[in-house]
Design a protein that fits this description.
The protein has 197 residues and is of the alpha+beta class. It is 32% helix and 27% strand. The chain has one domain: Aminopeptidase, CATH 3.40.630. Strands 1-2-3-4-5 form a 5-stranded antiparallel beta sheet, with helices on both faces. It has a 3-stranded antiparallel beta sheet with strand order 6-8-7, covered by helices on one side. A hairpin with a 3-residue loop joins strand 1 and strand 2.
Length: 197
């Protein structure tokens, strides 16, 4: 398993195992991230510190197995984990079977951290592992749509899916939602000025 971090001017983006010696600090950061309303909307209900710790252990195991890669995004100036980026199997069929998923804590949005981190990770992934990579985004998530388009993603399709993050105790059937499917090929990746490392 390659634990060498990806670095930018402001960030270290790495697998959880890279940060193992500081997990006790970063677990709190991740609890804040997963507990925020806007992140919970996409990743499901926050289930506490033990769940976050277990998720990190599972992420390291899945990376060893080559199933997916979860990377933590650390703001080096503040020594704080402010987000995540995950490369995982997509619910779509080949050639759109690899998906990028990302989240930045609401307090750190609007500061171009997502652009910076995604540019670095996508560049590495497209050169070394996967092509194409897709992102699924809800039509009303305008900031993510703008970010994906800025990075070179192209809208290729729409899909209807059920919200798998619904409360399992609910008696209501899962709600159907529409998602835009965006695709990125290496030759379309545009990091923009100042975002290269």
């Amino acid at each position: 398993m390659d634990v060498i971090p990806l670095k930018t001017k402001r960030l270290t983006i790495a697998l959880p195992i890279y940060f193992k010696c500081k997990w006790h600090w970063y677990i709190e950061d991740l609890c804040e991230l997963y507990g925020s309303d806007s992140v919970e909307k996409y990743f499901g209900p926050y289930q506490g510190r033990a769940w976050v710790e277990n998720s990190l252990r599972q992420a390291n195991e899945k990376c060893r197995e080559g199933v997916e890669r979860l990377r933590l995004i650390r703001d080096d100036k503040r020594d704080k984990v402010i987000g995540i980026i995950k490369i995982q199997k997509s619910p779509l069929e080949s050639p759109h079977d690899v998906e990028v998923v990302y989240a930045i804590h609401p307090l750190w949005r609007g500061k171009y951290f997502a652009k910076e981190a995604l540019c670095k990770v996508l560049d590495w992934e497209l050169l070394n592992v996967y092509e194409p990579i897709v992102a699924l985004v809800e039509p009303n998530n305008i900031p993510s749509i703008k970010l994906l388009e800025f990075l070179g993603f192209v809208h290729v399709d729409n899909r209807e899916s059920s919200n798998d993050n619904m409360d399992a105790k609910s008696d209501h059937p899962p709600k159907k939602k529409i998602e835009h499917v965006y695709e990125l090929l290496l030759e379309h990746l545009t990091c923009g000025p100042g975002l290269e490392s």
